[in-house]
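Database export, one record per block. Field names are fixed; values are copied verbatim from the stored entry.
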Amino acid sequence: MTTTVVSPPLVLKPGPLRLDEEAFYAFCQANPDLRIERTAQGEIVIMAPAGGESGSRNSEINFALRAFAKADGRGVAFDSSTGFILPNGAVRSPDAAWVDRERLRRLTPEEKQRFLPLCPDFVIALRSPSDRPEDLRAKMDEYIANGARLGWLIDPLTRTVTVYRPGAAPLVLTDPIAVSAEPVLPGFTLALADVWDPGF
């Protein structure tokens, strides 16, 4: 019998000395081994590193999205180490993301080197055993509210994929073989066999 341990992330309240963009960026650069996000309210959220199975699953997802993006050419794929400054001021790092190349061309060279000041068009969140489902659902709602056109919450623990789209209720797919990103990313379908079972 497997026991799932769910531990909430460490949340640092902003207090009177709220970090501005420059200070938060410097804080993240000074702690490269930590997974750090910032909420729209200025809270600093520090999350545990991924375990082996989650790391393998995330690598599978990013490999598939990256291969599609390179062949397709219309957008760029980003992995979980990329920070995005959302319109509401939050800084988030989805497990995988895709951004239309035309939007990226509008950024300055300096903006491209730092946290990208935009919400991705497409985001993927992968639940690990340490993640609380309510936290992930709130993040997915936040991405959609800030301009994402499509989001997938992939939960290997329940073998479900919840699809988020603007103006629609989340759609839960139970034990799907694959999931399609149509019409936002025409031609991209993620096979899930290796995500459900990392194979080691």
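Remark 1: Residues 1-5 have pLDDT under 50 and may be disordered.
Remark 2: The chain has one domain: 49-196.
End of record.
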